[in-house]
Every structure is written in C-alpha cells, then in structure tokens.
Amino acid sequence: MKPANPAQAGWRADEWLAGEQARGPICVLSDLDGTLLEYADWPDEVLPSPRLIGMLNRLHDTLDGAFAIVSGRGMRSLDVLLRGFIGIRAALHGAEMRHPGLDLGEPAADLRPLSAGARRVLHDYLLTMPQLHLEDKGACAALHHDLPGPDADRVERELARLLAPNRELQVFQGRKIIEIRPSAANKGAAAQRILARPAFANRLPVCLGDDVTDIDLLDAVKAAGGVAIAVGPRLSAHADFCLPSVAAAVRWLSTLQAVQEIARREQDGT
Ligand SMILES: [Mg+2]
Prior knowledge:
Helix content is 37%, strand content 19%. The protein is an alpha/beta fold.
C-alpha cells in the first residue's frame, strides 16, 4: 500500500538505504528542478551550490559513470546550471543528451524549433495573459506563472485547444509551469536510451522526480525492475518511496553515495 503522507514515508526510503540493494550495483537517473534544486519563480534565479555539484560528481565517480540528470530545461540552460558536473545531462525531457567527452549519438526526438504557427499561437495568447512568462527553449517552450490552480488548468486547456492543429505537440501542466513539447520528447524514452548504455548495464536503476513530466521516468524505471522515488507529494502514487523535500532528496543521494563507496571499498579489500 502506498503511504498517504510523504513526510512520514521518508524513513522508508532511508530503510532501503540500509538494505542489500543499496550496496549492490545500481545506476541513478534524476530530475533536477524541484528534485535536487528548489523551485524559483524564474529558472535563472536558482543555482546549484558547488557543494551539490561536488556531491553529484562523487556519486558519478562511485557509480563508474552510471548517473544521469534528466531535465525539462534546454541544454544551454543545463550547461550553465551544471557547470562542473561531469555526468550525462539530458535536456528538453531527454530529447537532447550530452556527456563531456562522449558521443551519445543522434538526438532522440525531432529537434526542429517550434513551428512559426505554434509560435504565433503562443505569442497571441501571451498578449491576452501578461501574467505568463515565456521561456523559449527551441524545440520546446515553457510558460512560467504564479496562477491559482483553476486558472492554470484553464490556460492548459486553452493552449491544448489552440495548439491542437500542431499534432506533434503536447501541452503539460507542471508546478508553476505549463510546458509545450514534441510528443517524442519524454523522460521515459530518455530513460530507456540511457539504461541501454554500457555504463548502465547490469545495474539496478534508481530514479528521482517530483513533477508530472517525471511520471514517464518513474514508470520506465519501474518497468526495468528499478526503484522509483517521488520528491514531494505530487507523484507519491507513482513511486515506490517518497522523500518529503529537495533537501531530503539531496541528503538521501549523499548517503547513497557513501553507502556505495563503502561497499565498493569492501569489495576491493581497501
Ligand atoms: Mg522537476
């Protein structure tokens, strides 16, 4: 049975850390905003601390490279934000992937910029809704807002209707954000591509996410026999465990890194 209260469920994730699976071969896929980084009103207003980047790099090294960040942000934004991070970064919900020094092959999805027609729809709509702030990510777009739930629902419905002629596009509502993206760009497909890489083979996949676009990621990892962790309350019904906050998720990953490091040293006899 799923725990009703994620705050009370945190100890179950900690209990997993004390078990055998956490000491065995694992790989980790994690969302960024709202999972490892607190949300800000505007994506440029938040920066990871050097300490967080350092912890992510240690995890990457301990897992022999089997660690990826999978984000809805554009690659340019991720490159700035994750400066110094040495692992795989997947941008635009996994449509574009990059790894320093590694060729990750062709993009998974059609990365053509949004069509002129779709852009016109968005710009015309923004004239009627000045509370929305457009983030143009090339192949995707995000509308940031601080609207109450019913108003955000209405915007999502109206945009889905207005963009319906662009059949390849999907409209999603996340936390303080409405996303427009090609249907081929989703974190589940990204997870499958990442898990097929040699560095991730024969490892138990573990993933973390907080928002609607992470459901595909959690489902893909569970389908691969892995462990899905929800950060905050939104995805608790889709997860094996819940962690109550970004701070708890960062602490949990840090402990996982230490557990893996100890197991590795024991195995090496060092
Ligand atoms: Mg998120």
